[in-house]
């Protein structure tokens, strides 16, 4: 490089930096926005930062329990992406055994493979660098309709889901209704 | 075959054996270009004499070393090309994409067990563990435990296809316009790129220079003509182009002097001599004139005068369209919700589905007569209409007539309670009809709300019904128990009578039989006989008394069972009450 001050960094086609993770995310972001195959998912960036995605999940009506819900969530990618998984957090309150009351999603594909603090999970279910935001979102949507009993992030919801499905359904319907009303705020 | 040709191939062999591990297949064409350049002025008909050959050999060796040295120097001065960051000009098949970095494979490796393909670097970063036998791990795609296939595993065709992809020079931001094949990009940067750094031609100077400037040493201080800042000549161009705060440029259109960096903005936005369209162009005016003179036209142009209004209208229209889309989605959701509500309503009690249309108004009416009373109060008031007759005093009444309580049919009971005539099943509840709505959205929302309330009320009514039902069953149960106890007592009475009769009968028999025995045995021992007879008589009475006692005990047991049952029944009834 010359001794002159560096050139102003021109946009490299992807907003927010030029690391390989940013480039990959930029590519995947563009793909998500142009893809017509995934109905009900729309995404945007938080503060034009490619590492922070805001997604809106509009759950199809045929999804038992959560059908019709509109949930806002945030996906935060680490700078080591895709070697390390992103974190996903629901901003809309959602009642589910595998989602912490804080909104953080506890799903096996978001757990890094070397970390085995949930001994039951086989490595086969955990993060792999070939996963994409799209596969993550699809897994989360399928998790909504079929909770995993073994790792209740929301213990109360897990218990209710097991012992009083009727009441559980009622709570879920309520959160779906609330999500619908808040969706356009 | 010209010696020129043979020399080339020889040179290539050398190059590939000594140069870096990255050997683009197209390096042959590259080096051919180099040679042609170098020998542009050389005679094509080289003499075949040994002397000429030797001289050429020597020259080739010199050039070879020069080539390698300049390449090495250049690689030292320029950051190595990051193949993952390249910008591709040509379209590529998605099958050429690495599933990890999602760009065309760079130095591909194939996994031994599953044939999946990744960039070497991508896989290296994923597989962090190493075994003595070499890298092993799970395939990121299929998770099979596997290892790398040897270098020979990757097809040459694949490598060639990848290297043929055209990319933009990584120095394109600095100004290089070159688009080259990916396989040649490293050579482009190291040997040809005008914007890559090379050593200063001056022997005494250590500083690097762009290749296009490397004709003489530019590393001496100069001062900018405009801002008088001091800098190296090598940096002057960059300063002049992008940094100098004082450089002025002459606008070709209006002949005014503006800041060099703002020239483009000036022409686009403020220059009075730029020809711009009328503000009404969007709505049909075709007039163009200089910015300074457009005022004259706008004063007379109807379209320009209307433009702000039309603009606002268009904006509003767009907004409306947007909100309409949102509304459509919302309506869709509400409809979905409504459908599921209906499903819940009609699926809960299939017995009553026949009376469907009148059900909801009836329930509602019934609940309205409760006059917003709480659920318990409602239960009390309606328990009057549903009151079950007290346990019948007439013990002889048959059970079947008592069991006719199912004549209580919910619709009847509700019909009694429903004082207002049942209206048609309408989805708009009465209190909501009167109030006007600011928007259809609010209307829908309130409708939704009303429906939700209704469902809640129906749910309450259902639990209420359920409670009443179990109450009825318990009452009936209680009565049955009492009946049974009564029957038990009667049975015991009968038993007692039977016992008494049996014993009387036995006594009579006993009195009769010793008489006959005494007659057959003779009268001599009559006293003894009568004594023995008396003994036999006594035994017979005892037996009769015993049987009677057993019968009594049995009857008592029956009665007890009856009592127990009653007790149970009562307890259950109590429970039922507390539940209600
Ligand atoms: Zn890769
Ligand atoms: Zn595989
Ligand atoms: Zn270049
Ligand atoms: Zn120099
Ligand atoms: Zn200057
Ligand atoms: Zn001008
Ligand atoms: Zn006009």
From TrEMBL, chain A:
Class of this enzyme: transferase
EC number of the protein: 2.3.2.23
Organism: Zalaria obscura
Protein name: Ubiquitin-conjugating enzyme E2 15
Superkingdom in the source lineage: Eukaryota
Keywords, comma-separated and alphabetical: Acyltransferase, Transferase
UniProtKB/TrEMBL annotation, chain B:
Top-level taxon in the UniProt lineage: Eukaryota
Name of protein: Uncharacterized protein
Organism: Zalaria obscura
């Amino acid at each position: 490089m010359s001794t002159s001050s560096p050139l102003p960094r021109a946009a490299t086609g992807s907003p927010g930096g030029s690391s390989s993770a940013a480039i990959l995310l930029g590519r995947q972001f563009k793909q998500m926005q142009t893809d017509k195959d995934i109905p009900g998912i729309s995404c945007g960036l938080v503060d034009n930062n490619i590492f922070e995605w805001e997604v809106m999940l509009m759950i199809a009506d045929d999804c038992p329990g959560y059908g019709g819900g509109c949930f806002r969530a945030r996906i935060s990618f680490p700078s080591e992406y895709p070697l390390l998984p992103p974190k996903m957090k629901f901003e809309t309150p959602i009642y589910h055994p595998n989602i912490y009351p804080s909104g953080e999603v506890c799903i096996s594909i978001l757990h890094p493979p070397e970390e085995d603090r949930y001994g039951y999970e086989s490595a086969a279910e955990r993060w792999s660098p070939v996963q994409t935001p799209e596969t993550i979102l699809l897994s989360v949507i399928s998790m909504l309709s079929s909770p995993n009993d073994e790792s209740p992030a929301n213990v109360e919801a897990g218990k209710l889901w097991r012992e009083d499905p009727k009441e559980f359904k009622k709570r879920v319907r309520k959160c779906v209704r609330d999500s619908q009303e808040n969706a356009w705020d | 075959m010209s010696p020129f040709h043979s020399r080339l191939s020889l040179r290539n062999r050398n190059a590939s054996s000594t140069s870096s591990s990255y050997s683009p297949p197209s390096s042959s064409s590259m080096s051919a270009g180099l040679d042609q350049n170098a020998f542009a002025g050389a005679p094509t008909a080289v003499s075949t004499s040994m002397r000429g050959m030797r001289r050429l050999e020597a020259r080739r060796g010199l050039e070879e070393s020069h080539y390698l040295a300049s390449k090495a120097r250049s690689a030292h001065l320029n950051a190595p090309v990051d193949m993952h960051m390249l910008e591709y000009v040509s379209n590529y098949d998605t099958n050429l994409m690495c599933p990890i970095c999602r760009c065309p494979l760079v130095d591909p490796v194939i996994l031994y067990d599953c044939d999946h393909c990744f960039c070497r670097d991508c896989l290296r970063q994923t597989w962090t563990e190493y075994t003595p036998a070499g890298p092993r791990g799970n395939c990121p795609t299929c998770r099979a435990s596997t290892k790398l296939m040897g270098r020979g595993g990757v097809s040459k065709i694949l490598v060639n296809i990848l290297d043929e992809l055209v990319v933009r020079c990584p120095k394109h931001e600095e100004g290089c316009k070159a688009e080259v094949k990916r396989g040649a990009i490293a050579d482009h940067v190291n040997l040809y790129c005008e914007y890559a750094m090379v050593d200063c031609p001056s022997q005494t100077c250590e500083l690097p220079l762009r290749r296009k400037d490397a004709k003489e040493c530019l590393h001496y201080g100069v001062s900018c003509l405009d801002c008088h800042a001091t800098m190296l000549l090598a940096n002057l161009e960059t300063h002049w182009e992008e940094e100098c705060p004082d450089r002025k440029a002459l606008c070709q259109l209006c002949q005014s002097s503006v800041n060099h960096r703002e020239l483009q903005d000036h022409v686009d936005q403020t220059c009075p001599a730029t020809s711009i369209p009328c503000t009404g162009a969007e709505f049909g005016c075709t007039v163009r004139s200089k910015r300074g003179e457009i005022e004259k036209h706008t004063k007379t142009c109807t379209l320009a005068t209307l433009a702000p209004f039309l603009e606002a209208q268009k904006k509003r229209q767009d907004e409306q369209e947007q909100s309409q889309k949102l509304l459509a989605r919302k309506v869709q959701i509400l409809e979905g919700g409504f459908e599921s509500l209906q499903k819940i309503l009609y699926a809960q009690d299939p017995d009553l589905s026949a009376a469907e249309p009148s059900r909801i108004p009836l329930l509602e009416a019934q609940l309205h007569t409760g006059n917003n009373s709480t659920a318990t109060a409602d239960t009390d008031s309606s328990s009057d209409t549903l009151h079950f007759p007290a346990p019948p005093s007439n013990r002889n009444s048959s059970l079947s007539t008592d069991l006719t309580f199912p004549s209580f049919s919910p619709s009847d009971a509700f019909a009694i309670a429903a004082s207002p005539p049942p209206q048609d099943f309408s989805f708009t509840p009465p209190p909501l009809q009167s109030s006007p709505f600011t928007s259809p959205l609010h209307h829908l929302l309130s409708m939704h709300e009303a429906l939700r309330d209704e469902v809640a009320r129906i749910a309450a009514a259902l639990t209420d019904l359920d409670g009443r039902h179990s109450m009825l069953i318990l009452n009936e149960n209680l009565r049955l128990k009492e009946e049974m106890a009564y029957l038990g007592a009667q049975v015991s009475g009968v038993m007692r009578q039977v016992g008494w009769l049996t014993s009387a009968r036995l006594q009579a028999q006993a009195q009769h039989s010793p008489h006959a025995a005494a007659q057959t045995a003779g009268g001599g021992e009559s006293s003894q006989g009568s004594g023995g007879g008396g003994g036999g008589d006594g035994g017979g009475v005892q037996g009769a008394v015993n049987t009677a006692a057993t019968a009594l005990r049995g009857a008592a047991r029956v009665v007890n069972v009856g009592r127990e049952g009653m007790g149970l029944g009562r307890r259950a009834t109590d429970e039922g009450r507390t539940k209600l």
